[in-house]
Design brief:
Strand content: over 45%
CATH class: Mainly Beta
Helix content: 10-25%
CATH superfamily: Calycin beta-barrel core domain
Strand order of the largest sheet: 1-2-3-4-5-6-7-8-9-10
Number of domains: 1
CATH topology: Lipocalin
Number of helices: 3
């Protein structure tokens, strides 16, 4: 597909926005979360201490960051502006994404649909979580326009209103690994914005690829 190097990171950005830190939960995600545990009669592996097992339990137990992700549950309507290259006029489109908590609140799934200008129907899916070990937000993305699985990590601001993501993927034009960054900002109880910055494959310079306004539909 033409301009695949633009559309793939574009869709990661949409999903990254949806899984970002939210200020209003759709329900109470804490009620759906189940802590990891150790059976009382479980025998430890040779050389393991109770503290080793406890570390594993902590690594698998959802916490406040997972509740942040789950608070983004619902259906979101997006208005997108996309720039194919530096200096080009913006192209506009709309999108819809449905975010659902999964794995007892440890992850969220986002199913995304839209129609990209000149590129046709688009669908994708992202899985988002918070790694208790690395202490970073994490994500994986796949879609119907590529064969790679994109990986990202994110960090939230102290006030929880901004989350900054860094994604890694392979550019189909340069045939090399590249990165993009996105800045998500909570603007209201049911609204968020996203700026996405990528590397222009011709100049090698970073430029603004997209701006999205997202609004959650009322239930």
């Amino acid at each position: 597909m033409k301009n695949q190097h633009v559309i793939v990171p574009l869709c990661i950005s949409v999903v990254g926005l949806l899984a970002a830190v939210g200020s209003l939960a759709a329900g109470d995600p804490a009620k759906e979360m189940k802590p990891a545990g150790q059976p009382a009669d479980m025998q430890l592996p040779p050389g393991w201490t109770p503290e080793d097992m406890q570390a594993c339990v902590i690594a698998g137990t959802p916490g406040s960051q997972h509740q942040m992700l789950a608070s983004g549950a619902g259906t979101w309507q997006g208005k997108n502006q996309m720039w194919m290259a530096p200096g080009m006029p913006a192209m506009t489109s709309e999108s819809v994404a449905t975010v659902t908590p999964m794995m007892d609140g440890r992850f969220t799934k986002c199913e995304f649909t839209g129609d990209m200008p000149g590129m046709g129907p688009f669908s994708g899916m992202g899985i988002y979580g918070f790694d208790n070990v690395s202490q970073k937000f994490v994500s994986t993305w796949i879609d119907n326009q590529g064969t790679g699985m994109m990986q990202g990590t994110g960090e939230a601001s102290a006030d929880g209103k901004v989350i900054t993501w860094k994604y890694n993927y392979n550019c189909p034009i340069t045939k090399k690994a590249t990165v993009m960054r996105e800045i998500e900002t909570i603007t209201g109880p049911n609204s968020k914005t996203l700026e996405m910055w990528g590397i222009d494959p011709k100049s090698g310079k970073e430029y603004k690829m997209m701006f999205i306004e997202m609004n959650r539909k009322s239930s």
